[in-house]
Design goal:
mainly beta; two-stranded antiparallel ribbon
Length: about 100
């Protein structure tokens, strides 16, 4: 199942894409498919017929995952051992007035 993500590149406008799976921490690039503007319109600077696009992590500020994800995600490491389990993120609000 592909994940829908919003990709924020350094110094560029963000766009939407499909990501086959969350990348491992050992990868130095990310492979995206079905790139489009955030409003769903076609991106004009891509070559017609291109199916996948590879971006180095050095160009990516962050990803927003828009699809439903499992309750927890286990990232696989390249040597086949179990990776890190992501349980969730939270932010404590400052209770000062």
């Amino acid at each position: 199942m592909a994940l829908t993500v919003i990709v924020h590149l350094v110094g560029e406008e963000a766009f939407m894409a499909e990501l086959d799976e969350l990348p491992s921490t050992m990868q130095n690039h990310i492979t995206l498919r079905n790139i489009r503007k955030k409003d769903g319109k076609e991106v004009t600077y891509l070559t017609d017929g291109a199916k996948a696009f590879v971006f180095p992590w050095t160009r990516i500020s962050f990803l927003e995952v828009m699809s439903e994800m499992p309750d927890h995600v286990v990232a696989a490491s390249p040597n086949g051992t179990q990776g890190t389990t992501i349980l969730g993120f939270f932010r404590e609000e400052d209770e000062r007035s």
